[in-house]
Amino acid sequence: MKSFKERISDVVKKIPRGEVLTYKEVAKRAGKQYAYRAVGNILSQNKDPKVPCHRVIRSDGKIGGYNGAFGMKRELLREEGYLK
Length: 84
Known about the structure:
Layout: H1 4-13, E1 21-22, H2 23-29, H3 36-44, E2 56-57, H4 70-79
Parallel strand pairs: 1-2
Protein backbone atom coordinates (compact mmCIF):
# COMPACT_ATOMS: atom_id res chain seq x y z
CA MET A 1 0.00 0.00 0.00
CA LYS A 2 1.27 3.47 -0.90
CA SER A 3 2.07 6.04 1.75
CA PHE A 4 0.06 9.25 1.98
CA LYS A 5 3.06 11.14 0.58
CA GLU A 6 3.17 8.83 -2.46
CA ARG A 7 -0.57 9.21 -3.01
CA ILE A 8 -0.21 12.99 -2.89
CA SER A 9 2.54 12.82 -5.50
CA ASP A 10 0.36 10.63 -7.72
CA VAL A 11 -2.55 13.10 -7.50
CA VAL A 12 -0.39 16.16 -8.18
CA LYS A 13 1.38 14.51 -11.15
CA LYS A 14 -2.04 14.16 -12.83
CA ILE A 15 -2.91 17.88 -12.66
CA PRO A 16 -2.84 19.05 -16.29
CA ARG A 17 -0.74 22.01 -17.38
CA GLY A 18 -2.70 25.23 -16.95
CA GLU A 19 -5.00 23.78 -14.28
CA VAL A 20 -4.84 23.71 -10.50
CA LEU A 21 -6.26 21.86 -7.51
CA THR A 22 -6.56 23.13 -3.95
CA TYR A 23 -4.66 21.56 -1.08
CA LYS A 24 -8.03 20.34 0.19
CA GLU A 25 -8.88 18.69 -3.16
CA VAL A 26 -5.49 16.97 -3.24
CA ALA A 27 -6.01 15.66 0.30
CA LYS A 28 -9.45 14.32 -0.59
CA ARG A 29 -8.20 12.61 -3.76
CA ALA A 30 -5.29 11.12 -1.81
CA GLY A 31 -7.75 9.57 0.65
CA LYS A 32 -7.55 11.90 3.66
CA GLN A 33 -10.12 14.63 3.20
CA TYR A 34 -9.09 16.74 6.19
CA ALA A 35 -5.32 16.42 5.81
CA TYR A 36 -4.90 19.50 3.61
CA ARG A 37 -2.32 21.03 5.97
CA ALA A 38 -0.29 17.85 5.71
CA VAL A 39 -0.50 18.16 1.92
CA GLY A 40 0.96 21.66 2.17
CA ASN A 41 3.75 20.48 4.45
CA ILE A 42 4.61 17.56 2.20
CA LEU A 43 4.59 19.66 -0.97
CA SER A 44 6.70 22.37 0.68
CA GLN A 45 9.49 19.81 0.90
CA ASN A 46 9.11 18.47 -2.64
CA LYS A 47 12.33 18.39 -4.67
CA ASP A 48 11.06 16.15 -7.48
CA PRO A 49 10.56 18.19 -10.69
CA LYS A 50 8.11 15.52 -11.91
CA VAL A 51 5.68 16.59 -9.15
CA PRO A 52 4.27 19.97 -10.30
CA CYS A 53 3.43 21.23 -6.82
CA HIS A 54 3.09 24.78 -8.18
CA ARG A 55 -0.31 23.63 -9.50
CA VAL A 56 -1.71 23.34 -5.97
CA ILE A 57 -3.28 26.49 -4.52
CA ARG A 58 -5.21 27.61 -1.45
CA SER A 59 -8.98 27.11 -1.20
CA ASP A 60 -9.52 30.87 -1.16
CA GLY A 61 -7.94 31.13 -4.63
CA LYS A 62 -4.69 32.67 -3.40
CA ILE A 63 -1.48 31.17 -4.72
CA GLY A 64 0.09 30.05 -1.45
CA GLY A 65 3.72 29.16 -0.95
CA TYR A 66 6.18 27.39 -3.20
CA ASN A 67 9.34 26.15 -1.49
CA GLY A 68 9.92 29.70 -0.26
CA ALA A 69 9.72 31.18 -3.77
CA PHE A 70 6.29 32.84 -4.04
CA GLY A 71 7.19 34.76 -7.23
CA MET A 72 8.40 31.59 -8.94
CA LYS A 73 5.08 29.82 -8.37
CA ARG A 74 3.20 32.78 -9.82
CA GLU A 75 5.51 32.85 -12.85
CA LEU A 76 5.14 29.12 -13.52
CA LEU A 77 1.33 29.38 -13.37
CA ARG A 78 1.47 32.40 -15.68
CA GLU A 79 3.64 30.50 -18.19
CA GLU A 80 1.16 27.63 -18.15
CA GLY A 81 -1.76 29.96 -18.83
CA TYR A 82 -3.49 29.71 -15.47
CA LEU A 83 -2.72 33.31 -14.50
CA LYS A 84 -2.75 36.35 -16.72
